[in-house]
Amino acid sequence: MPKFLIFITALLLSGFTALAQGPIQKGYIFKGQLVDADSGTAVTYAHIANPYKGTLTVSQASGAFTMPVEAGDTLLISNIGYVTRKIAVPAKPSEEVVTIKLQPKTEQLEEVVITNFPSEARFKEQLLGLKLPDEGVALDLPVPDVAKRTVEGEPEGVTVFSHTGAITGFANKFNNKERGRQFKAKMAVEDQNKAFIATKFNKEVVQDITGLEDDEKLNEFMKFCVLPDDFLVKASTYEIHEAVLGCFKDFIASK
Fold first, then answer.
1. Is the whole model's pTM more than 0.70, yes or no?
2. What single DSSP character describes residue 133?
3. Using CA atoms, how far apart are residues 34 and 76, in angstroms rounded to an integer?
4. For residues 69-81, average pLDDT
5. Residue 216 parent element (H or E)
6. Residue 168 parent element (H or E)
7. Considering only CA atoms, which of 106, 47, 112 is closest in space to residue 245?
8. Which domains can be identified in the chain, with CATH numbers?
9. Which contacts qualify for 12-16: CB closer than 8 Å, 24 or more apart?
């Protein structure tokens, strides 16, 4: 009996101790402010993502932001011109705003050589200015049809030549040759567009925006985030950044 009373007393004391410590904090609102690590100025319109919750927010003009979090979460902070950062959420909330410094990113751009047709207008100019050399290709034109018939008003037996077959054959040969040239020019433009797109949208760019370090996850995301070629050719760096973040949010939500 005394042992039973001792057990009950210990249980009650532990309960009182837990109450005295207050309720366990599960989630809270994280308050942060983003600044440039070199100048100390506010970093505006940066993207702050919580991959664990699938939430996303943007820093204000002052660099401030808020985000619902839980202990153990990691915030992913990215912005054009800055190195992407990962911030571990503190176990307990703080009344003070947490200052987060973002390091400006200095990139050494690789040389990209684009030749022949940098634009559609240039392509048309080159195409219209093409000189067709005499390559000595036999046209194998059909022999003109020769018909001997009587024409009204002419003496009987006048020979009339029909050149329709020869003209048609020449036109077909010329059109086929020109179509071949146009096809090759079109393929050259498409190849150049693909090379141009590869400089704007690749694994390195996506990894910098999303912070994905696992190669398998990165490949999975690249297959998930399919952006149209027409968009990638015309889009600015900011527009691609926004599109990838939108894909990343959907990617997280799908898990």
1. no
2. -
3. 12
4. 90
5. helix 215-224
6. helix 164-200
7. 47
8. 25-102 (2.60.40.1120), 120-130+140-199 (no CATH), 201-253 (no CATH)
9. none
